[in-house]
Amino acid sequence: xxxxxxxxxxxxxxxxxxxxxxxxxxxxxxxxxxxxxxxxxxxxxxxxxxxxxxxxxxxxxxxxxxxxxxxxxxxxxxxxxxxxxxxxxxxxxxxxxxxxxxxxxxxxxxxxxxxxxxxxxxxxxxxxxxxxxxxxxxxxxxxxxxxxxxxxxxxxxxxxxxxxxxxxxxxxxxxxxxxxxxxxxxxxxxxxxxxxxxxxxxxxxxxxxxxxxxxxxxxxxxxxxxxxxxxxxxxxxxxxxxxxxxxxxxxxxxxxxxxxxxxxxxxxxxxxxxxxxxxxxxxxxxxxxxxxxxxxxxxxxxxxxxxxxxxxxxxxxxxxxxxxxxxxxxxxxxxxxxxxxxxxxxxxxxxxxxxxxxxxxxxxxxxxxx
Length: 370
Hints:
Number of strands: 36
Oligomer: single chain
């Protein structure tokens, strides 16, 4: 289903409403197919193919191949999209699908399940991303009471999705987000996917809540085989990861803006352990397997850091000060656990103005004070 028209067809407002329907895929905008004068940067008012306003309400629907909430086919352009999905089953959801540009996307999903299979067969593309191809200015997704089957196998991206350059593209123009990105997961019934910080986010503000982010080698696809391993947070921009960030050894990160992370797990060069910084967030540690542990916020289970028992755990931060720390170790084994942070700079010692509390069920609890 496409919300807009074919080639030189422009629509002011499209209202899509479906109840108890099975729709293989939905594209919010039109069918440009690269056959018009549009480019990716054509303004919505000047666009010859697009939809200025998209209103979509889906209830008890099944959409196994993909729900595109903005953009469309080719260089179509959508203005404002407001999408509400309740009690449905999806395989994938995107900001722009399959291409195009979107000015503003707001999506609210309630009691919806991201499925692994449709009609007994595995769904090929289990993806959740701001961009399949194309670009978006502002995007906001809220998932309330949703479930994610095998969340570790869902390919999730705050910007472009991994493999965007494997589809019918020459690798240009590259995906871009030049406004604000917000993903919020609340009352989740399962663990949530991990989101890559991928292509196109250098000049975006990001806030991710209820899921963790990952700075890792990003796979563009065949048309850009080298991928992306160097990431930059631009000046005056803020990336906020309210439930934490994983940083891989294969990447370089340049921070010219503001980075906020509840928990930061940094993979070590040999790849067999992590340095985990709670950054002052109260954390809980439990055994995950015979040789690994699971780290969560105290009282939270939807977002978990699963790291080898050879890892080091810090209650504080790296090269910065936090007010207080709290570590509650229920079970499992770790190599080293420190109530404070980690600083290698003698001229900027780390201070904890309050206190650090460490609890373990394997030994009497004790208090470390600074």
